[in-house]
Design brief:
Alpha-Beta Plaits, Alkaline Phosphatase, subunit A, single chain, 14 strands, alpha/beta, about 20% strand
Length: about 400
Amino acid sequence: MRKYKRICLLILDACGVGELPDAAAYGDVGSNTIANCSISTGGLKMPNMAELGLGNIISIKGVLSEAKPSAYYGKMAEKSSGKDSTIGHWELAGLINHEPFPVYPDGFPDGIIDKYKQLTGRGVLGNKPASGTEIIAELGEQHLLSGDLIVYTSADSVFQVAAHTDIVSLDELYRYCQIARDMLIGKHAVSRVIARPFEGRPGEFKRTADRKDFSLTPPGDTVLDKLKSSGYEVVTIGKVDYLFAGKGISRAIHTRSNAGGIDSLIEVLDEDFTGLIFINLVDFDMLWGHRNNVEEFAKGLEYFDRRLPEIIASLKDDDLLIITADHGCDPTTPSTDHSREYVPILVYSKSFINPGKNLGVRNSFADVASTIAELFEVDSFDSGDSFAGGLK
């Protein structure tokens, strides 16, 4: 089996490739994020992803299948219960979660909000599912007058706290979020508490780039822990370290956009180290999927495709690139929630002698963790089946 000095695990957040067999239980029948985007926009221009084999996984308008793709290709089913980023990333790293995180379609119970007000010494506005931009437009002026915190959730398992930077400093907002994180345990253990600072005047409020996530700590060791304890570097780019609460990570690089994430990845690839690079490109999910912005989602896919040659050019001969996703978020459906979908998998290295093989339909995202563990010769995972032996 070929040895790799570095593995880059690149997550196209929310870029699913079709409903899973249990999609009906999640209200996601008909979801197919990438394919539906291609249909709604008249076709996607993604020649570089097509060359890797994206069009060989499913039918995507504008993306042709290749007779000899330059990558191994396939798709993966999610074994965990749920469809959020934390569960998806944990499974990619080897942890299966059989209980979905709690969600609050009617807002948080009075007991939770009353305790939060007592611990923070501030009142609460909102307490309902909402778009972040819409709720600050609705309640921002009232917040300025009262100093009360804007608390809201979404279809995801999140407790979000928004505050104007002139009223609540960043450090204070982060402290209030840590209070919520410490408080939300047991049956109310939401996946993430998120700080959402904003600025501006009424009618012109806008969120700043100082978002911070306070995630649950993974309940067991992931492939990140196994690599780090074995002396490998584990570098994360984007929101990945938040999703793992920093566990098993050597160095975290935070970014503000897909473009910034790709720039950071290219810089890291220019370094000399041995280990894992784990990057998430979140704009697909955060900016376009949840807002049902099909046109910008499609443009984001095409932008990534245009930048892909830069990423590939930056790879060393002993680097391995794995491109996949963590769930879907189909912007063409009425729902603004994540969607329960298969995710694509494309595996590329400049050193491949015989690429272009179909990895098939994998039974779990955890196959990625098992593959990484085998290639780096660390303890394996029972949760997934490695495909390392087939990469040649």
